[in-house]
Amino acid sequence: MSEGVGSDPRRATTAARWRVLGHPDGMLIFQARCLVEQHGWTEPAPEARHRVLLGRSGVYRRRLNDRIEFSDATSVVLTRPGDELSVSHPLGCGDSYTCLEVDAEVLAERPDAAHWLDRGGWAGSSDARLDLAHRLLVAEASRGLDAFELAERLHLFLGRLLQHTTRAADPPGAEVDRAVRRRPATLVAHRRLADRAREVLAGHGFTRTLDEVAREVGSSPHHLSRVFQRVTGESLTAYRNRLRVRAVLDTLAESNGRPLRAVAADHGFADQAHLTRVVRDQLGQPPAQLRRLLT
């Protein structure tokens, strides 16, 4: 592992393991795993380059330009020079992510330069297909690519990422009903409840029942389901499945030969057939095929 790579604001106050995947001209891609030494906020650090942060596992809270939000394995964050980012780990667990850093000169040569150079402080969520493209890029870079091929693949990925973030420009909860929109305090409370449910699901495994999650966040199952759908635009089940599929991809990429029926049990699926159905629905390919691609 390489230490102290890139311009990540967490490196001064949070222990991390780093692995550089490649650095063609004006670009750098690396993976990092944060090891929590403190639960409080790190010092705000200004960004020096345009960066893309792609969640892989774990949970944390981020303060990006004074806006505090929850981050997990589905999160995507875009920053530009001058943005300020700090993080905390209130649950006491770390997180892992992939970071892509790009010089402004490299972005300026792209036909979609204005969309990148003018965009900063954006945070959202990846869908299953974008997450798989991210993981395949990491797997291919880990096998070893020359600078020419890696640069080309990174530019293609940036184009795909830009399309996704443009479609997802509206923040979660943009379609909140008028009654709630007129009560800011209610909207804030609902967002906090949804974030707390995300923390429970992302930070404590996937074997808890809906009743157990609702009790932990101090809500009824019905109210929690309705609020979560309203705030995030998806059901609790859909969000849980997105997290589970990402965790399954991590397991498949480890190449440990663990039987798929055991992988299904580890991640709270009813059986191997249920695992295969959910993964295929989200990614278009069965787990066995994805294992071959990722290892």
Describe the structure.
The protein has 12 helices and 10 strands. The protein is an alpha+beta fold and 295 residues long. It has 3 domains: 15-167, Jelly Rolls (Sandwich), CATH 2.60.120.10; 178-234; 238-294, Arc Repressor Mutant, subunit A. A 6-stranded antiparallel beta sheet has the order 1-2-9-4-7-10. The protein has a 4-stranded antiparallel beta sheet with strand order 3-8-5-6. Helix 3 (128-143) packs antiparallel against helix 4 (147-167) and helix 10 crosses helix 11 (272-283). The chain starts with 14 loop residues before the first strand and ends with a helix. InterPro entries: AraC_XylS_family_regulators (IPR050204), Homeodomain-like_sf (IPR009057), HTH_AraC (IPR018060), HTH_AraC-typ_CS (IPR018062). It comes from Micromonospora yangpuensis. This is AraC-type DNA-binding protein.
